[in-house]
Amino acid sequence: MSELAETLYTQVQDLQKRTTGLENAVDDTHETVTEIDRRLAEQHELLLALAEEYDLDREDILADSKPGDASDPEILRPPILRNRGCSTFIVVRTV
Asked: Residue 56: phi, psi to the nearest 5?
């Protein structure tokens, strides 16, 4: 009976350690997602400011800024800029 209690106690301790590790991972993930959301909001504002500066339709820009396959260089060039004869494009990366 005491061996069973000792085994159960060890298992409970292990579960507590794992639970603490998961809580820490969730906290870290939350911080990461919050930072990504902040950066995305900054990039969104920058994209809209560039659209305004170049007199582009904001709705078209937003429609064309959906995520794509970043390995394809054409995905990085917004179609709205290609359609207006723009041969250059800007990739904004925040650190």
From this structure: -105, 155
Longest dimension (CA), the chain: 81
Contact yes or no for 75/66 (Cβ under 8 A): no
Q: Give the separation between CA 48 and CA 35, rounded to whole angstroms.
A: 20
Using CA atoms in the order 36, 41, 47, 52, what is the torsion angle rounded to 10 degrees? -170
Tell me: the pLDDT tens digits for 12-62?
999 999 999 999 999 999 999 999 999 998 988 888 888 888 888 887 777
Identity of residue 50: L
Instruction: Give the tokens for residue 38.
Output: 């902040």
Type and span of the H or E element at 83: helix 79-83
| Token pair 């085994």: residue | 7
Please name the amino acid found at residue 93. Answer: R
